[in-house]
């Protein structure tokens, strides 16, 4: 092989290495951007849900001052219906199907959940309201939906929801439905062919 051919081959290899490093750099930038976008999706999703009023997770920023200043409107009653939907291997239900409450009156309801599996699970409840406009007037002070729940194998638990209806709820709204969808977060444990 002549000296010129060796030099041309070395130049081509050097050019190929530069192109490979350039491509590697671009791929790394794309991977970092995709990873960052994945993390940004959660707050973006929450903002979109807040703006559109879909699947609003009730904020926990209600102060005690707000509670003590709220007046109970004893001139009217609102029927609050409770509903439970599950997406997973458990039993989930409210202890009562409905209550009559006065706007401004502090009320507690309990939901029961039973993990029917032989392993620990993480679960989350997402509330929704009907009519949709009622979400702005349904104030939760304590709720199992504020954080993920860890349920041990075959565990049964009672979970309270403490709430009041804002007295400024429009007079035409006479019934509010509070519905929770309870679903598993994460993956189930893997089993082998022996079931171990």
From TrEMBL:
> Does the record carry Transmembrane helix as a key word?
yes
Membrane-spanning residues where?
21-42
Q: Does the keyword Ubl conjugation apply?
A: no
Question: One GO cellular component from the entry?
Answer: plasma membrane
**Primary localization:** membrane
Q: Which Pfam families match?
A: CtaG_Cox11
The protein's job, in short, is: Exerts its effect at some terminal stage of cytochrome c oxidase synthesis, probably by being involved in the insertion of the copper B into subunit I.
Entries under PANTHER family matching the protein: CYTOCHROME C OXIDASE ASSEMBLY PROTEIN COX11, MITOCHONDRIAL-RELATED (PTHR21320:SF3), CYTOCHROME C OXIDASE ASSEMBLY PROTEIN COX11-RELATED (PTHR21320)
Its recorded name reads: Cytochrome c oxidase assembly protein CtaG
What is the organism field in this record?
Answer: Undibacterium parvum
Please name the taxonomic classification of the source: Bacteria, Pseudomonadati, Pseudomonadota, Betaproteobacteria, Burkholderiales
């Amino acid at each position: 092989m002549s000296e010129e051919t060796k030099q041309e081959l070395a130049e081509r290899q050097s050019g190929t290495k530069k192109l490979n490093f350039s491509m590697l750099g671009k791929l790394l930038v794309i991977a970092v951007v995709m990873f960052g976008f994945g993390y940004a999706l959660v707050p973006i999703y929450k903002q979109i849900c807040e703006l559109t009023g879909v699947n609003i997770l009730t904020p926990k920023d209600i102060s005690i001052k707000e509670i003590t200043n709220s007046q109970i409107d004893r001139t009217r009653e609102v029927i609050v219906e409770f509903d439970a939907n599950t997406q997973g291997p458990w039993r989930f239900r409210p202890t009562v199907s409905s209550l009559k409450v006065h706007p401004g009156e502090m009320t507690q309801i309990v939901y029961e959940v039973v993990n029917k599996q032989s392993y620990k699970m993480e679960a989350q409840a997402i509330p929704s309201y009907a009519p949709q406009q009622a979400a702005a007037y349904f104030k939760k002070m304590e709720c199992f939906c504020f954080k993920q729940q860890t349920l041990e194998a075959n565990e049964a638990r009672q979970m309270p929801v403490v709430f009041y209806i804002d007295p400024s709820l429009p007079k035409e709204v006479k019934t509010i439905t509070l519905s929770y969808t309870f679903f598993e977060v994460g993956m189930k444990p893997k089993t082998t062919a022996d079931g171990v």
